[in-house]
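Hi there,

I know you've been waiting on this one. I reran it after we fixed the sequence typo, so this is the corrected version. Both the input and the resulting structure follow.
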Amino acid sequence: MSLRCSWPRIALHLLVVAIACGCGQATNAGGGGFAFDVAMVKDAGLADADGGVKTDLGVADAATDALDGGVGDGVADVVADLISDVGLDSQQDDVVDIAPAGCVPANCDDKNPCTVDTCTANYVCQHVPKLDGDTCDDGNVCTTAELCSAGVCVGVGPVCGNATCDCGENAVSCPADCAPPMALIPAGSFWIGCNAAKDAKCQPSEQPQHKVTLSAYYMDLTETTVTQYKACVDAAVCTLPGKQVPIWYATYPDFPNHPVTFIDWAQARQYCQWRGATFDLPTEAQWEMAARGDCEKNGSTADDPGCAAAMRTYPWGEDQPTCSNAVLNGALKQGCDTNFTWEVGSKPAGVSPYGLHDLEGNVSEWTRDWSGNYGAAAVTDPLGPSSATYRSIRGSSLSSPANKSFGRACERSYDYPNGAGGSIGLRCVRAIP
């Protein structure tokens, strides 16, 4: 067990006692610290009435001088030398961690899972921050995929509706289906908009390309499924998809892992917010960075002007979209010739740099933003226009042609907020407080 104390002062007094008493009563007991006779300490004038070692170095000096015959040498000189060596005067009270039996990380644990705690040779605790994205353990058995972000250990909490799972102190696990899996998108910068250096299909609405910096957030690994949305309906919070007939939603339970469709913008956002106070639809910028990656994911750095030209065209890179990497319009029918959506995550060759599935293909996805034109200035955590006619939609769908014009990460679309179709779905983000 480590002690919190002013070690140079204790060292001085123990040294005084050891030398003054002829070292016969001051010993290092098995390497675990000093043992000494309190009576001798009192006789030497170094103890108070309760037997505690006095902390005034002036008193210690006077006592040692007395023991040396008042000539100011011997023990007093040793004490003076030690004071000089450790850089203390009688007014200092530097406090560090010491461990009587030797320092180990547990002796100086700062209880932060995003630091590496070590002890120096002088028993000083060092707390070295971990990097963003390093794994950690937040101590909660009901969170998963914990990663460090800005010095804080953040896990994906199993959220059931608007309440967390029942994870008491005796719990060892939580229901696997309690929360859809999410991926951490670390804080970073990227260039939003069409990269004309690589993309020959740039549209006016995708320009000008400009720098965006985002705070860290989590994003669903897949599009929201029929089963996941049904849980919100069963909780009497969400309403049935489909304005007149819940067409594809009615396929439950036959297609539980297909993306839910025929929901409008308000229904999509209500579902996300039902999952927890920090959940919402992604902004356009959050959606696009999740699809393309930040500057580092594209082989550049945030401070490099060349990051703009490095941004990838598609979530998977530069290969043209096909039914091997996305659920698109096939040669004969939509949905890669099935005339239907596919189960989420069916095209692993098309994952984004962060491992997200189906950001292109299967269904397009609502975002939080109103649709509007881009500006040229660099921005941080943009939210889009304050109002407009249409809500922004991102990503291609099962009805998009498999050619270079579609499936691009910068591609933008929109619809009326009350629009609801068979090729529009959603996924949610979770803010990191």
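Quick highlight: The CA atoms of residues 39 and 397 lie 87 Å apart.

Best,
R. S.
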